[in-house]
Amino acid sequence: MTNGVDFNDLHRRMDGAVAAFKHDLASLRTRRASSNLLDAVQVQAYGTTMPINQVANVTVPEPRMISVSVWDKSMVSAVDRAIREANLGFNPIVDGTNLRIPLPELNEQRRKELVKISHGYAENARVAVRHVRRDGMEQLQKAEKDKTISADDLRIQSDRVQKMTDDTIAIIDSSLSEKEAEIMQV
């Protein structure tokens, strides 16, 4: 804390927003199958909602196929329903306690939908970063009001918070454009 705001805390929180954004991007499908594609799927199981990886094992046996091995036979239909309702465009094939999910080729419309979803993830991350900036600015305003920092220190530290914000948003925008190019590549 430099008599005003804890820059390490602001940096940690902004990095957390970027990490969450990159995790969300990893769940978007590009050309190859990935077990991350099902990370967002929530299954109604045992009277509660839980991530799919807590009721099944998700593997990628081949580039265009995802395999889901459900541990409890009674949960197969719930997992199947959760995957279909997750709006990922997947149609699982049930085979006993296993679900095979063939990945169809991405058509132009689905690619555009995925780009739109990735833009939504990016905007959520930007908003989270702006919230961190707002918190930092409020701490600085309070410190100046309490006379623990001068007006010059307020300006200098405010500029530093703004630069952190701009740098973090640039990272988000860069990751977004990389993912967009990856999605649109045929």
Describe it for me?
A hairpin with a 2-residue loop joins β1 and β2. α1 packs antiparallel against α3, α1 packs parallel to α4 and α3 runs antiparallel to α4. The strands form two sheets. A four-stranded antiparallel sheet has the order 3-4-6-5. Strands 1-2 form a two-stranded antiparallel sheet. It contains four helices and six strands; from the N terminus they run αββββαββαα. It is an alpha+beta fold and 186 residues long.
What features would you highlight for this structure?
single chain; 186 residues; alpha+beta; 4 helices; 6 strands
Total count of strands: 6
Radius of gyration: 22 Å
Beta-strand percent range:
15-25%
Helix content range? 40-55%
The chain-level structural class is alpha+beta
Total helix count? Answer: 4
Oligomer: single chain
- Main beta-sheet annotation: 4 strands, antiparallel
Average pLDDT = 86
Strands ordered across the widest β-sheet? 3-4-6-5
Helix-strand string: HEEEEHEEHH
Amino-to-carboxy terminus distance: 49 Å
Low-confidence segments, ≥5 residues, pLDDT <50? Answer: none
How would you sum up the global shape?
elongated
